[in-house]
Amino acid sequence: MGKTTLDVVVFGTANIEYITYVPELPKPGELVAGTYMETCFGGKGANQCVAAAKLGASTVLVAKLGKDESGDDYLNHLQQHEVDVTHVQQVENNPTGMSEIAVSENGDQYKINVAGANVFLTAKDVNRAKKSFHDAKVLLCQLETDMNATMCALRQFKGISLLHMSPMRKDIPNAMIGLPSILVANQEAAANLTDMEEVTNPDQARKAAETLIGKGAKSVIITMGEQGAVYMSKKSKDMCTHVPASDVPHLADSSGAGDAFMGSLAYHIARFPKLSTEHHISAAHSCAAYSMGRRGTQPSFPGKESAKNDLCYSTPTFSVIPPSSPQHEDGAKTPPPSIVAPTPDEAHSQKEAEEEPPRPAPPPPEDKILEAPPPRTSEEPPKVVETSNEPPKPVETTDEPPKPAETADEAPVKPVDTANEPPANKA
Questions:
Q1: Which one of 7, 146, 259, 399 is the catalytic residue?
Q2: Binding-site residues from annotation
Q3: Which residues, other chains included, contact 236 with Cβ-Cβ below 8 Å and sequence gap of 6+?
Q4: pLDDT tens digits, residue range 21-48?
Q5: Does 386 reside within a domain?
Q6: Number of domains in the chain
Q7: Helices (runs of H) and strands (runs of E) counted in the chain
Q8: Which SUPFAM superfamilies match (predicted)?
Q9: CATH number, residue 189
């Protein structure tokens, strides 16, 4: 027998979850009647560890439990799922962490978390588990633990590390974004990390992924619920792929879907390292969809008999998201390439050009056909009668009022009122 390899090491929390199912979530101060209640083993670290173990991964959990009945029960539960609990310590005089969760009929939920013994998980525990960190292929971390301890775990690990940006926090240092091999965030976390108003479609997810890559992330997966997930890597940041979600025939409880996705992702990366990330994401989608059809968190995760371990051997369905133009990013339509909107100055110039086309019909005074040579006389020259372009006939001038003609007796020479003959020079 060869040496047993370690697939996944998880650094995270372990909680007891009290889940209540209600028709709809209560408003502040409102009392609603629950339809069902159950107690489950939870905590993001332990959840993701159990999700990978149920699929068949060899796992180690680094966590803290209280030295109480709940802690004893949890330790036995982990061992039943063949999780290595060498580095799960029970803390004296401290309770095991707990979470209160309410789930509505349409899948909405709220969660209240009491850390308990989880607050004692520090960077020292990374050093105590250094052999497991050295041997494991994949590291899983979340944001429920102390931030400095999580960053220490990510720095110490030399394999493929996954950081699940959940639950989202406001005090995330920029240096943390560049530590994991793969940064995994949902739509809300992606918008928060990139200062975007929202991330609701694959195009916006691509923009968020580009921003996170620009902040130092090595690769990014943005999960988008029923829309699937978007993936981008720094090594090929010009290519962004969209992997659609798996079908959920019946929605029972979505509370464990994210942890099912992460545990499955870690398992498939560890067991099928030569396949593409799109393969791994597609397989993780399948496990998350399975989880959503069942109640509870860890009880909803698929096991070896429920999950298809050959998922990574099937060709995944995914598409490439092209880069968005600035107009698309702003939600505006892109005009055809040959149409360029003019600036205000250009528009004014164009308007003047339209109002002043080439002069095919200059004003009558400049019309060479009607222009007459000025008379040579020592007296005041007669005034040239301006005419319109109408057919020749005796008409009054169109550009000058008839008033000068009424005072013609005051001038030395009376102008001729015809449009076809030049004015005569009468001495």
A1: 259
A2: 43-47, 144, 186, 223-228, 253, 255, 258-259, 285, 291, 294, 296, 300
A3: none
A4: 999 999 999 999 999 999 999 999 999 9
A5: no
A6: 1
A7: 13, 15
A8: Ribokinase-like (SSF53613)
A9: 3.40.1190.20
